[in-house]
Amino acid sequence: MARVRTEIKDHIAHVALTRAEKMNGIDIEMAEALVAAGQALVADESIRAVVMSGEGRAFCAGLDVQSFAVLAAGDPEARVMPREYGNTNLFQELVMVWRRVPVPVIAALHGVVYGAGFQLALGADIRICHPETQLAVMEMKWGLVPDMGGMVLMPRLTRSDVIRRMTYTAEPVAAQQALDWGLVSELSDTPLEAAQALAGVIAGKSPSAIRTAKRLIELAESGAGEDAVLLAESREQTDLIGKPHQMEVIAANMQKRAPKFG
Fold first, then answer.
1. What is the span of the domain harbouring residue 214?
2. What is the pLDDT of residues 20-39, one digit of tens each?
3. Cα gap 56→235, rounded to integer Å
């Protein structure tokens, strides 16, 4: 059965985890489906935003328990260490690919967001969370550590002591606490609707400027250094000024109408 469904409407890609009967637990097939979905959107020049959600009772309860036996069989090094996607393995890529999608990715979170699901959510640009959601770095429960990009992404969002507490204990935290710690962006009683509305706002902005903004933010967060970031700001701006998308934005503002980018 399909593990992930992607639908594109009005330049917004809606990506849904569809393994509701397993609380969207991630097995090998879902990992491969998430990577394939992300890679397809990396190459899709028509999209302007992405909304990611999970069907059923939860966004994602983590790695499918039955997958532990599969992953533990044989040689762990042969399964984990190969860099299959540049600098990532399969399970890292299912998270990190969303950082490489060139438009904003908004995750709508509800139910539980545990382990692999928590790290998947970190791959989004923005996380909108239901107030009753529980989030956890769950790997220590199974005698493991986060290894799906979490250690790259968590330090960009929150303090070291928060990362250590969540990693060492594997205890779930409430949505409000996650918000206070910077791990989610905002709370909403209807996170999917809020994510779709925000995606609509983003999709109405200059497509080239939005892609440029995500690229520039990624560079700034990479530790590239002040000189490199300042130069990139100037170069990216030069590539936007006076181009068709910017001229359409100016015309729309002057005429008090929504811009039309085609």
1. 207-255
2. 999 999 999 999 999 999 99
3. 45
